[in-house]
Write a structure and sequence with these properties.
mainly alpha, 3 helices, about 50% helix, flat, disordered N terminus
Length: about 80
């Protein structure tokens, strides 16, 4: 079943099926295999990019979990901002 066929099938669903407790969110075995293959391909690409970065003299630094990029800001208030 192609993506277009799937979209046509989904649009034919009546509203009662969407509101009911029996909404089918399952994925076919073929779809999950494609998704897994895609994720694996992305993982291999990221790993290759990391190895190339390190081979080129790059260095990976660990950043503590409590570090944020935005500096603290002064609190803003909207009290009295409306005209009378």
């Amino acid at each position: 079943m192609s993506d277009e066929d799937q979209l046509d099938t989904d649009s034919d669903m009546d509203d009662d099926a969407i509101d009911g407790d029996e909404l089918d969110l399952s994925v076919s075995a073929g779809d999950s295999a494609v998704a897994l293959a895609s994720k694996e391909r992305e993982r291999r690409q990221i790993q290759a990019d990391i190895e190339a970065f390190l081979a080129g003299g790059g260095k990976i630094q660990a950043v503590e979990s409590n570090v944020i990029s935005d500096p603290p800001r002064k609190p803003e208030t909207s009290y009295g901002s409306q005209p009378i």
